[in-house]
Amino acid sequence: MRATVLYGAGDVRVENVPDARLIEPTDALVTVSRACICGSDLWPYQLMQPGEPPRRMGHEAIGVVEAVGSGVRTLKAGDVVVMPFAYSDGTCAFCHEGLHTSCVHGGFFGTVELPGAQADALRIPLADGTLFVLPVGADEALMASLLTLSDVMGTGHHAARAAKVGRGRTAAVIGDGAVGLCAVIAARRLGAERIIMMGHHPDRIALAKEFGATDVVKERGEEAVARVRALAGGLGVQSVLECVGTEEAMRTAIGIARAGGTIGRVGVPHYEAIPGSEPAFYNNLTIAGGPAPVRAYIQELLPDVLEGKIEPGRVFDRVIGLDAVSDGYRAMHERAAIKVMVKP
Ligand SMILES: [Zn+2]
User: Fold this and answer.
1) pTM metric for this prediction
2) How far is the CA of 138 from the centre of ligand 1 (A)?
3) Which residue(s) pair with 62 in the sheet?
4) Ligand 1 mean position, distance from CA 102 (Å)
5) Euclidean distance between CA atoms 143 and 159, whole angstroms
6) CA of 96 to the centre of ligand 1 (A)
7) pLDDT, tens only, 97-124
């Protein structure tokens, strides 16, 4: 079968590899019908150092169960499933608390340890706890939005939840990538009255407005902070959804937060320490967030996707075959595409 392998910075290839197969009795084997490239895939794509082991990429997919191990109880061949970016047993203390990304037996797809989903097929560990069976056939129109339940829509929702978005509150979203755009959807869905999108790509801003952004701030750094604070009555915003992961983004988040406000961060942090500890302290800010337990959120978000109330699948603006995956990485790296779908 074919799979995507990252060898070094800027060096991603599609190769023939041994077929995915069942190993543990709790495994399922899934044929990938749709996968995608994630903004977080761009971090290793840009920063992978010489000497690091190759990595089989991809952690988002919809697929069809081909086979299950003898210990799998809730899945059968032919089921259409969505795969969260992390696998989890569904039974431990953290899974019961809805924090599947901290599962004591869990882990992440697309790592050195576990091959990823930008491939013809993949092995799913702890399949009963990990996979979510979709109540649909091959409904083409819904597939893009359903695919976002693997990661970006659940991650945007997590940013909103962590930032305590609620009815009547003001929210600001930092980052106009797919997660930031989904965070706008999530903030609106949870009742935010004012949603300020911080970004500057025209196509992304247009989509953010359609998703519910009420204001757009294109400035960066100190200017952006001043603009957002002015828009929010001079006091700052109550909920900040940080969807980038750079030190600059976190500094901006702390700068625009209203005293007593909350920052929900879902961008994978690429900084050693959280900046701005003094303003964060004197303003009584809460800094929350982390990897989204998307497995827990599928149940909550799925009805809205099925009813067409939210359309997170609109973040996909390019569809490629698996053989063109390196073009897909390049397009996202160059910001020529918001999010790329891969149809093996
Ligand atoms: Zn668990």
Assistant:
1) 0.96
2) 30
3) 34, 82
4) 7
5) 23
6) 7
7) 999 999 999 999 999 999 999 999 999 9
